[in-house]
Amino acid sequence: SYDPVKGFVPVSGLISVNQTLVANPSAPFNTVSELVAQAKAKPGQISYGSLGVGSGPHLSSVLLENAAGIKLNAVQYRGAAPALTDVVAGHIPMMFIATGVAAQPWKAGQVKPIGIGSAHRIPAFPNVPVIDETYPGYRAELWFGLFAPAGTPKEIVGKLHGATVKAMTLPDVKERLDALGYIARVGSPEEYANFVQSEVDKWRRVVKAANVRVD
User: Fold this and answer.
1) Residue 90 near residue 13 (C-beta atoms within 8 A)
2) pTM of the predicted model as reported, rounded to 2 decimal places
3) Taking a C-beta distance cutoff of 8 angstroms, is the pair 115, 21 a contact?
4) pLDDT greater than 80 at residue 212
5) Residues 78, 14 contacting (CB under 8 angstroms)
6) Which residue in 3, 96, 137, 157 could disulfide with 57, CB within 3.0 to 4.6 Å?
7) 5 within 8 A of 196, measured Cβ to Cβ
């Protein structure tokens, strides 16, 4: 009943959470290129965990399908925990999941990272390739920001933005974000409004190209 763009005024970005494609250690592929080659040989037969139609893991996978010209099989779950549990157990071979959430199981050897959906390799995991290295321009990230109701006076938005930037640049906050593989995304309200609109346009194209529909 509301417009996600017109109904709010952006105050500031907070963080971007890169999506990482992880697989069971026994999965017969170790790189995005190997996965794509197998998917082309077996269209629709390689499954991945999804948290519902339109969720981050689902659209990240659809974006990869579009980029690589492949077809994968979505297996829907009610949350990230049961999906990741099934990847670890080998019931499904792979899924996209927030990099910070994936960190512990892959350090424990329970999953293997295939690729990260960021523009550049991230400091916390420098040896993990980004999917952009195989498919330039590929970006799969969730982002969080601070918004106010449409019509909020500019001076109030400005005060909120200043306080947000101050908090997000505290050394201990930055250290914690880096440890989780998260990226601080602070900028002017105008910059964030442009970013939000660009994301709406991008994912609209992805959804339309793949004919994604909510059941």
Assistant:
1) no
2) 0.84
3) yes
4) no
5) no
6) 96
7) yes
Query: What is the residue whose two structure tokens read 């529909």?
Result: 213
- Biggest alpha carbon distance in the chain? 58
87: nearest Cα among 114, 64, 69, 67:
114
Structure confidence by residue, pLDDT tens digits, 111-140:
999 999 988 888 778 889 999 999 999 999
- Strands 8-23 and 141-149, sheet pairing: antiparallel
Q: How buried is 63 (Cβ within 10 angstroms: 0-12 exposed, 13-18 middle, 19+ buried)?
A: buried
Please check the confidence at residue 2 and state whether its pLDDT lies above 90.
Answer: no
